[in-house]
Amino acid sequence: MMSSPPWRWRWGQRRRGRPPKDRIIWSDIGRVSFIPFDERGLPISNEPIYIMPDEYEALRLVYLEGFTQEEAAKRMGISRGTLWRALSSGRRKIVQALVEKRPIIITR
Questions:
Q1: pTM for the whole thing?
Q2: What is the pLDDT of residue 16?
Q3: Could you give phi then psi for residue 27, rounded to 5 degrees?
Q4: Residue 72: in which H helix or E strand, if any?
Q5: What range defines the domain where residue 75 resides?
Q6: The dihedral of CA 99, 100, 103, 108: what is its sign?
Q7: For residue 77, is it within any domain?
Q8: CATH no. for residue 72?
């Protein structure tokens, strides 16, 4: 169920050494925000947590689409170790946002 062609994303080159490898992102993300509400129905305004496109795509492929880590890594054009790090980082950020009642922003 792909509605748009894949696009490439990568971290900016901030360091010396080998340039980062592009990640192939298969879903159209845009900019999405999830804002928690308190018991009175008012939005909680804490510092947001930002989910990067590669973390979002890794979480989507493995946990929603049901791909193995190896299959998801091939689909994104990265190594399994890189996919594992993106999954780990994405899970940690989501859990932190839930526990600390912080907004989640998915950026492109």
A1: 0.79
A2: 74
A3: -115, 150
A4: helix 69-76
A5: 52-108
A6: negative
A7: yes
A8: 1.10.10
Q: Phi and psi at residue 105, in whole multiples of 5°?
A: -120, 125
Residue 1 has pLDDT above 50, yes or no: no
The verdict on residue 33 lying in a domain is no
Give the chain's radius of gyration (CA, Å).
15
Of 34, 9, 13, 39, the C-alpha closest to 24 is 9
The pLDDT tens digits for 6-44 are 655 555 556 677 676 778 887 777 778 899 999 999 999
Q: What token pair was written down for 1?
A: 């169920």
Rounded CA-CA distance 19/40 in Å is 48
Which residue, chain included where needed, has tokens 């989640």?
104
Residue 47 forms part of a structural domain: no
Q: Is position 96 within any domain?
A: yes
